[in-house]
Amino acid sequence: MEKDGNKLWRLIGALSGSQGKATQIALEKDQNTVTGKATTDLLFKQYASVSNIEVDLEKKIQIRKNTKNLKEAPTDQERDLINKKFTQHELHRAIQDLKLKNLQERMV
Questions:
Q1: Is 19 within 8 Å of 10 (Cβ atoms)?
Q2: I want to staple 40 with a disulfide (CB 3.0 to 4.6 A). Which of 15, 20, 59, 89 is the partner?
Q3: Are residues 48 and 94 in the same domain?
Q4: Which superkingdom, per the lineage (predicted)?
Q5: How far is it between the farthest Cα atoms of the chain?
Q6: pLDDT for 93-102, tens place per residue?
């Protein structure tokens, strides 16, 4: 899924022209050529018109709850965790764990 997500973001960047590509992707609509951000907008409008992904009520509620939690200011305890100092050894260990996790995900 992560690889597909990265591909999608690269496509969005290429469509909107924000990735500094030498050539822009162009689409045709009503006999007009569309480039840049308008291309991205056109693609997503078309996708929205044909997409029929259904999300069950329980999942919608969970998404709304998570979104609300993200908007709330962090508590003092969370702020302390964010600002907690760490050693270089802890940093290297976390990076190694992340690399291992990414490798395991690719193998699945």
A1: yes
A2: 15
A3: no
A4: Eukaryota
A5: 60
A6: 999 999 988 8
**Phi, psi (5° rounding) for residue 92?**
-60, -40
Q: For residues 33 and 73, state if they share a domain.
A: no
- Describe the crossing of helices 2-16 and 88-107 by its angle, rounded to 10 degrees: 100
Domain that holds residue 12: 1-53
Give the position of tokens 């969970």.
62
Full-model pTM = 0.35
Residues 19 and 30 in one domain: yes
Contact 16, 36 (CB under 8 A): yes
Residue written as token pair 């993200």: 70
Residue ranges of the alpha helices (H) in 17-87?
37-50, 57-71, 76-82
For 72-89, the pLDDT digits (tens) are 888 888 888 888 898 999
Domain count, the chain: 2
Task: Give residue-wise pLDDT tens across range 39-65.
Answer: 888 888 888 888 877 888 999 999 899
